[in-house]
# Entry
Amino acid sequence: MKSLSRRIFIKQSGILATAIVMPLSYHSILNKTEMSDKELFDVIIIGGSYSGLAAAMALGRALRKVLIIDSGKPCNRQTPFSHNFLTQDGKTPKEIATLAKQQVAVYNTVELYNDLVIHVSKTQNGFRIQTSSEAIFSASKLVFATGIKDEMPDIKGFSECWGISVLHCPYCHGYEVKNETTAIMGNGDYGFEFAKLISNWTKDLTLLTNGKSSLNTAQTESLARNGIEVVEKEIEELESVNGQLQSIIFKDGTKKIIKAIYTRLPFEQHCQLPEQLGCELTKDGYIKIDTSHKTTINGIYACGDNVTRLRTVANAVAMGTTAGMMVNKELVEEKFTIKNN
# Structure
């Protein structure tokens, strides 16, 4: 494979000024036409965001031949800044991903391929991958780091605010909206528990049940004692400027000034291929894994947001690193088993 000079790498990848700290050769594939079909890899990682890149780094450092296939649509692409990740606090998701790709590119057994995987089949020695451009690759092991897809509610203006001022995680974004006029969109036990949690960051808090409350009497009284208003009106629209929430308009025509909302959205797996291959899902809809990140299908691993509710960059990276190490361990064990038989 052709190695690119540092100058060409920076030009093609758009690396920020922080990336110019050291010379390196870039071994990742930037143009999919450069990759020949039917190449065999130790591991193919489907999904090249934080968790997939972390798995690739662990495997690259273990001298494994790795292909990352990524379609370039991370779920946090609308989020302006990432937080609660040591050394990267306050950076944009793009900055973190760009630097991660540069650092993974140091390992010349790791290649990056920009495409969408549309079909995976089991073979005698592993797996066969086909992409939307009809490229074919094979690998002994697969890692799915494909994330999830949030399902937006039918509320005008909601999607424009998602990840900016409509938030899912106070540990990721709560500090930036501390003490603001804040709402929880939720009901029942979930709404009650989330309201309790968010009261740590602001005392100006409202629970929006978006319809009749399903709170029990004890929960309603507890919220009232802690100064948390419960509003049962149905929501018509979120008014915002560049994704920054200004107010909520209810279906009865009334309006309430709110600067931030927390909610948990329903979701589906961003990639259906694990299910098609027989990987079981948990009752909550995540890919079922063991402590080694193995799915219920031999040779297939998963890591990142597709396996856990803990959606943070730090957790995605930690899970990817663990998955990479466990895949390498299995490859080592298999090699010894073959030689001993």
